[in-house]
């Protein structure tokens, strides 16, 4: 489990045109090697109107968060 601070250097979001799904990409710093082995869905929270995290994964230096909303 990681417990510490990271900065979000950049963020992007993409809405799925076919449903109520949102992909959020966050560029993190510092990036640690063990980030790639974390189970990002466990303990990952998004605070917004009725949003639920579906999955989270690392791709390069980007943390990708797939979520649904209603």
Structure description:
By secondary structure, the protein is mostly beta strands. The protein has one domain. Helix content is 0%, strand content 50%. The chain contains no helices and four strands. The protein has a four-stranded antiparallel sheet with strand order 1-2-4-3, with no helix packed on it. The radius of gyration is 12 Å and the shape is globular.
Multimer state: single chain
Overall tally of structural domains: 1
Q: How big a fraction of the residues is strand?
A: over 45%
Task: Give a count of the beta strands, DSSP E runs of length 2 or more.
Answer: 4
Q: Distance between the terminal alpha carbons, to the nearest Å?
A: 30 Å
The secondary-structure class comes to mainly beta
List key phrases describing it:
70 residues
Question: What's the layout of helices and strands?
Answer:
Layout (H helix, E strand, L loop, with lengths): L6 E9 L5 E9 L21 E9 L2 E8 L1
Concise account of the structure shown:
The chain has 70 residues and is mainly β. Helices cover 0% and strands 50% of the residues.
